[in-house]
Design a protein that fits this description.
Blueprint lengths: L1 E8 H4 L5 E2 L4 E2 L1 E2 L4 E2 L12 H15 L7 E5 L5 E5 L1 H11 L5 E3 L2 E3 L6 H9 L1 E8 L2 H11 L8 H8 L3 H10 L6 H5 L11 H10 L4 H8 L6 H17 L12 H8 L6 H13 L9 H6 L15 H18 L5 H4 L15 E5 L14 E5 H7 L3
Parallel strand pairs: 5-7, 6-10
Antiparallel strand pairs: 1-10, 2-3, 4-5, 6-7, 8-9, 11-12
Bound molecules: zinc ion (ZN).
The site of zinc ion (ZN) has 7 residues, from α16, β12 and α17.
């Protein structure tokens, strides 16, 4: 791979700049010779957060702070693509085409409303660019390692760059497009940002059973994303077919894994929905996110719910009561030891040697209240094992 250091002014770079509102990206610069956002690049993010970042780019130029290096990829036909710097160039292009304002002397100014001398300062600001010529894989590998200024690429953005091709392009149209009407619905179950590729990452994770990179690699040349799309929609439809009420705790759960594990079990929607409502309402359930997996798994694993345990004051009162009673009757203060035949039958355990237990198991409807609390020696408590 060869690199050449070049210098362009802001005006040269932004000549012919077009911002596509629909796709939220900057398109061309250098009189059409530069593609600002090749398909493997991210959406434009600097306009988020009230444009704080894009305003900062212009402020830096006005103060003549360096904007950092830009990296272009030189194609065989002589055209250029931005490898790194598209957020900065798009900010400059958007400002020069009056898409946002900056503050000067406490007043907001669009570019063409700025005093002429300030306009000239901006237009003549030089920017340093590394232009690179090499094979596609060389350049992509390098792109993975530069990852310099601005918002660092996350894992999925990197994968999109490395495996760019018809599959990623198609998949992004569906899963990275904030204008897709389905995104609203999906965001009930998927956490994160469409633009930062979290929805695409989730869809890939579900369809590939966690093997995202392998999946992208093997489908790289496909122009068809049906499997990805249908599997994703199928998982969500499956969740909705089991739990007809929605809870915000359902957002971001590992639904793909739960689908893989449980989708062949039959469930009664009415029952499941009712049980979910009960558990979501149960003050003993500390981990409400665990309710759905607990129910799908047949209500076996109470650890998923992190059931509230008895507090120290309750334990102490029950210990005292239980020990006094045991002493009076000459038996062990652990009711299970007291029923045994060994030496432990009459053993009085210290407070630290015992732990609280639900007399009637919580999973069978027993409450976490003092009248359902008993202390057992640690051995028996562990052996009983339910909470
Ligand atoms: Zn015992």
């Amino acid at each position: 791979m060869e690199t050449f250091l070049k210098q362009y002014t802001v005006a040269e770079l932004c000549d012919g700049f077009v911002y596509n509102e629909l796709e939220e990206k900057g398109l061309y610069g250098l009189s059409g010779r530069l593609t600002i956002q090749p398909e493997y690049q991210r959406n434009y993010l600097y306009a988020e957060d009230n444009g704080k970042k894009e305003v900062a780019v212009i402020d830096s130029v006005l103060k003549q702070y360096p904007l950092g290096l830009l990296y272009f990829n030189k194609l065989q036909d002589g055209r250029l693509e931005v490898l790194d710097g598209q957020q900065r160039i798009t900010s400059l292009g958007r400002f020069l085409t009056d898409k946002f304002s900056v503050m000067s002397n406490e007043l907001p100014y669009r570019f063409h409303a700025l005093p002429k001398d300030l306009q000239t300062v901006i237009e003549n600001t030089p920017l340093l660019v590394y232009e690179c010529e090499g094979t596609e894989s060389e350049i992509k590998q390098w792109f993975q390692t530069i990852n310099i200024a601005g918002i660092p690429l996350n894992e999925q953005e990197e994968l999109n760059a490395v495996y760019s091709g018809p599959f990623v392009t198609k998949a992004r149209e569906v899963f990275s497009n904030s204008r897709n009407a389905n995104v609203q619905k999906w965001s009930a179950y998927v956490r994160g940002s469409v633009k930062r590729q979290d929805f695409l990452n989730t869809a890939l994770d579900w369809v590939s059973h966690g093997q995202v990179e392998e999946y992208m690699q093997s489908h790289r040349r496909d122009a068809n994303i049906d499997e990805l799309k249908f599997h994703f929609e199928n998982v969500i439809a499956w969740v909705e077919s089991i739990f007809s009420d929605y809870y915000s705790e359902m957002c971001g759960l590992k639904w793909g894994q739960l689908y893989d594990e449980f989708h062949e079990h039959p469930y009664n929607q009415k029952e499941m929905t009712r049980k979910a409502a009960e558990l979501m309402d149960d003050p003993c359930v500390k981990n409400r996110k665990g309710v759905f997996e607990y129910l799908l798994g047949g209500e076996q694993d109470t650890r998923l719910l992190d059931v509230r345990v008895f507090d120290e004051a309750t334990k102490r009162r029950v210990y005292k009561r239980q020990t006094e009673e045991a002493r009076r009757r000459g038996v062990s203060n652990c009711p299970l030891c007291a029923m045994g035949h060994e030496a432990r039958r009459t053993k009085l355990w210290g407070e630290k040697e015992m732990d609280a237990d639900h007399v009637e198991a919580w999973s069978h409807g027993g409450s976490t209240s003092e009248d359902n609390c008993q202390l057992l020696c640690l051995t028996h408590n562990r052996a009983k094992g339910n909470r």
